[in-house]
């Protein structure tokens, strides 16, 4: 059979599910279909592409080199397809008779860059015909995924924690980092701390945020949202490292101590490369003028 250079979205969804689960039964359940048609679809995809994507034996399913490539490329393609649909729906709302003004979704790390964000929203709202801005708080590294799959049109990103690869961006500000501690802890009385000071403190492990769905190893609690983190710090169960601007959300039960040797955090406004939205361009202009 002659090989082809195109893959249908449905085929990509099927393959990515199998590649992530490495189990046809679980993948079929996740997709809401029966297992036999899923197996046939993957076999047909392999024949059409002329490559083996999955190695199957009694021990289970494993990805071949070609399968690893298609998993990486397939995720990106599915994100791009979802992004196109989401952004098109948002743009279409302004095209309907009596429709609302342009709307942009701005992803931000919960608790970070609070003062900058406040100034940006106020300055943008004062612009003539400014787009409506929906602020979408997220976890530490979720902004990247939100930009790629279209849940957000722009994001405030923080280097070195966020990757800017594949995005256009403008630098907005640079700041130091702080340790956020329980107010009654002995370290809270210090004028400055080092990273070594807060690593391995008995009974006060560093909080762990997931990056790309995976939590780093360590004894600290796995953090799912800002409220959980704030409460665990107040209860004396963990310590966290944040940009200095995070002082805006601290509770009375918290203390913030500058970290002398922590790398500076650079805040960028980032957006998908090659985006031609005039509403987005206006938001970026406002951000860079602050």
From TrEMBL:
PROSITE patterns: HTH_LYSR
Pfam families noted in UniProt: HTH_1 (PF00126), LysR_substrate (PF03466)
Keywords noted in UniProt: DNA-binding, Transcription, Transcription regulation
UniProt domain HTH lysR-type: residue ranges: 7-64
UniProt-listed SUPFAM superfamilies: Periplasmic binding protein-like II (SSF53850), Winged helix' DNA-binding domain (SSF46785)
Database matches in InterPro entries: LysR_HTH_N, LysR_subst-bd, WH-like_DNA-bd_sf, WH_DNA-bd_sf
Keyword set includes Membrane: no
UniProt keyword Mitochondrion, yes or no: no
Annotated family: Belongs to the LysR transcriptional regulatory family.
Protein name in UniProt: LysR family transcriptional regulator
Provenance organism: Streptomyces chisholmiae
Lineage: Bacteria, Bacillati, Actinomycetota, Actinomycetes, Kitasatosporales
